[in-house]
Amino acid sequence: MHPELELAICILNGYPQASRAKLEAAGVTQAHNLYINFLEQYLPRVKIDVLFISDLATVLPSGNALSAYDAYIWTGSDLTIYHQDDPRVVRQIEFSRAIYRAGPPQYGSCWGVQMAAVAAGGEVQKNPRGREWGLARDIQLTPEGQRSPLYAGKPPSFDGFIMHLDEVTRLPAGAKLLAGNEHTPVQAVEVKYGRGTFWATQYHPEYNLDEMAKLIKTRSQALVKEGFFPAPAAAQALADKMSELYRHPDAQELREELQIGDDILTAEIREGELRNWIDHLVIPSLGAAKERGHETEG
Length: 298
Description:
Structural class: alpha/beta
Number of helices: 12
Number of domains: 2
CATH class of the largest domain: Alpha Beta
């Protein structure tokens, strides 16, 4: 926690307005609020702006205004990043590229790791193994990941919250593969492009067990259609057990049934990437940000 530190952080919510409305109607916490909940605890004096970047009427900062923020965070999205005939997608890629050029650090989960790759010249495609949902099992750090400050204090193998259909299939130049698992070989990357650095994960450190349970209930029809459950009630029953374990994390029998450990239930482990991004990338970059400001003024 940094009670003395004042940072200005911009959260970019990648969900379109119609999708946000559906999530709200289903009682699912909006993606940007998951990050706000973390930031306001870890940085009590943080100043946060939220931009709904998929809404074409949303005005985005440009030029010198890009450096008015100390860092940018990308949420998930239900858009498809390789549908680049969609102006809602194109403007996001172009904006991430502009942030790269300006220099402030970026972080993102799910859509964020895809954005980190594509904006710097990488590639994303539909995952031939289908949807990865609920928990990404046995995420393994690569040798680069074991050396990366993004994973300081994190075990070399862990589970993480996840819900996605697409995957990064080609890393851009200047990227390091930090973590992967059997279902999704690219689970985390560091990308350097232009003047900026983007740390990103396919999984969601900002989620907790109850929030994933809500999302499973919301996506139950899709999970049935894709063959994961015989009926929506079965998906909802699993989600109810997940919520029960969230409320009673010491319920050993339920932990064993769901195969859920401290890497999911303990915030100190689960949110490690978010704290490390602030401590090891954002805070050290503040001096560089001042230098960029002097260059601009000159």
